[in-house]
Amino acid sequence: MLSRSAARLLTTQTRAFSTTSTRQTKVAVLGAGGGIGQPLSLLLKIDPLVSSLSLYDIRGAPGVAADVSHIDTDSTVKGYTADQLDDALDGAKVVVIPAGVPRKPGMTRDDLFNTNASIVRDLAASVGRVAPEAHILVISNPVNSTVPIVAKTLEKAGVFDPRRLFGVTSLDVVRAARFLGEVSGNDPKNTVIPVVGGHSGATIVPLLSQNAYGKSISGETYSKLVHRIQFGGDEVVKAKDGAGSATLSMAYAGAKFANAILRGLNGEKGVITPTFVKSELFADQGVDFFSSNVELGKNGVEKIYPVGPLSAEEQKLLEACLPDLKKNIEKGYAFVA
Ligand code: NAI
Fold first, then answer.
1. Where does NAD(+) bind (predicted)?
2. Intra-chain end-to-end CA distance of the chain, in Å
3. Ligand 1 centroid, distance to 57 Cα (angstroms)
4. How many CB atoms lie within 10 A of CB 210?
5. In this predicted structure, what is the pLDDT of residue 10?
6. Which one of 15, 93, 109, 237 is least enclosed by Cβ atoms within 10 Å?
7. Nearest residue by C-alpha to atom 31 in ligand 1
8. What are the tens digits of pLDDT across the range 289-318?
9. Where do the H-state alpha helices sit in 90-218?
10. Hey, which residues does 49 pair with through a beta bridge?
11. What kind and span of H or E run contains 67?
């Protein structure tokens, strides 16, 4: 039997998914056997916009697929082993990538670069070859570098379309809403905090001033809240004590973002959420990728919104973000070059 908290999660998640009409959409998860991959596969199985779920991992995916496939929703599920990546990707419209190693206590996301860069590059090369029109959602860290790696890999293959590549930063948005709610007492469900920049430490820039509750927070409460949003991942890494980083909240955030992508593909208008994409906003400062509010549609990225009005503190946060982000992006580019 489900625990009360698990039952509540499922109810909330089912509510979080909205659908205008159903459509045939194959979604592939690369890294489906992992800490994020498993609950993410579960949540995608209950998304009515997913018609077929393709679960791939170098280990464990058939087991996850067999398990998830018994859930009484309309979609079909198939698991693929290490040598079946092409089959897993065949016909995929959306590819979600949580493959790679997570952090241990004391590690930064950049410490994962050496292992995850090649995993993501090789998976991206296969997506470019087998499913060049797929929308690619990158969860594997360091997102600030892995997304440029995917872009360059696809560019080399001659199939890069910036409208179809997304770094998943939605956990930062989820955390911002939750943590603000804890400070101000409002229901996080109705809170939208744009979180811009990148996805690690100081590159995470929450724009609290753009929210009715957030803009009244000041002083030490403000600094602590910003720090918690920027370094919230560390709380989980520390509490898991060597067993990994955020998996359940990440799966929730990833499924929510995938649902936004699917709603856009399905023709729904006004689907707007922050995500890390190829962006002109700060390209003149050498920052080719940036997360800001993006309108999603039938072709993926339809419109990239500017950051909007910033408070003096947020201006400072942005100034601190850009040089770090530039370095992370260049590191990703250099890896593929
Ligand atoms: P995990 O170690 O539990 O799972 C990773 C899975 O990837 C494993 O099942 C492994 O077999 C698989 N894998 C490794 N190489 C592969 C390959 N070449 N092809 C397919 N699968 C492969 O790790 P976890 O906790 O699921 O984290 C995954 C990634 O997500 C990490 O890089 C982590 O840092 C990142 N992450 C990103 C967040 C975000 O906000 N974007 C939040 C939390 C974690």
1. 31-37, 57, 116, 139-141, 250
2. 51
3. 10
4. 19
5. 46
6. 15
7. 102
8. 999 999 999 999 999 999 999 999 999 999
9. 113-130, 143-156, 170-184
10. none
11. helix 61-68
